[in-house]
Amino acid sequence: MGSGAVVSGGLRISCDKDTGVAVLTLDRPARLNAIDLATASELASAWRAFRFDDSVRAVVVTGAGERAFCTGLDRTAEVPQPGSPFMVDDPLLRVGPKANDCWKPVVAAVRGMACGGAFYLLGEAEFVVADETATFFDPHTTYGMVSAYESVYMAHRMPYGEAARMALMGNAERMSARRAYDLGLVSEVTPPGGALAAAVRCAEVVASYPPEGVQGTVRALWTAHETARAHAFAQSPHLIALGNLPPARQAELFSGRRPDGFRTR
């Protein structure tokens, strides 16, 4: 079986040339696979490279370690912002495949926490496989931040009321993999540690089909939500700029968080 592996900063990429499946791993387990600016740039580059690699016909995206798939933007990242509420620089807007015009099918494999900015990746995957340890939550409101882009992605993947509950409950509540499966956010739940293998099996099946039909289907599925998503995204910058607390106050709330103060449903 032919395969290749590339490690670049916060990413690890392996490609099996026989099956046509690439596995893209967020490889910052010590930071719960939070995405810093360098990793955000590497993700965008990886998706663009997949566009030109005909040997890659499907991609699985996952996170290293047992604790987290991804916990969003690394809070140590310094992101300068324009002074206008109509312009917000969000480094995570380019971390997903669709944002980089990559229409090869993507399956997400989730173990542990998936929260906040993780939804930029989950929202642009075709479907999600999670193991029983997976939990999903959005901590933005807890720390005085607007959940804008994340909520738009989730409102297209699950019932409105559940997306609203996740966004508004913040860090106080985590959605279990089983609950996420019941709502349609997750398409398969596996025993602990089994999500990656199950996602790869799905990707191998899809990669075995003629790629033109597969990629056209991915594009057609995305079109079903694209117009509404684009309109919602257009409102996000000034909502974030007007609704977010100053960074120093956010940091104060974050430093005072209680990691054991949540419940899972």
Automatic annotation (TrEMBL):
<comment type="similarity">
    <text>Belongs to the enoyl-CoA hydratase/isomerase family.</text>
</comment>
<dbReference type="InterPro" id="IPR029045">
    <property type="entry name" value="ClpP/crotonase-like_dom_sf"/>
</dbReference>
<dbReference type="InterPro" id="IPR001753">
    <property type="entry name" value="Enoyl-CoA_hydra/iso"/>
</dbReference>
<protein>
    <submittedName>
        <fullName>Enoyl-CoA hydratase/isomerase family protein</fullName>
    </submittedName>
</protein>
<keyword id="KW-0413">Isomerase</keyword>
<dbReference type="Pfam" id="PF00378">
    <property type="entry name" value="ECH_1"/>
</dbReference>
<dbReference type="GO" id="GO:0016853">
    <property type="term" value="F:isomerase activity"/>
</dbReference>
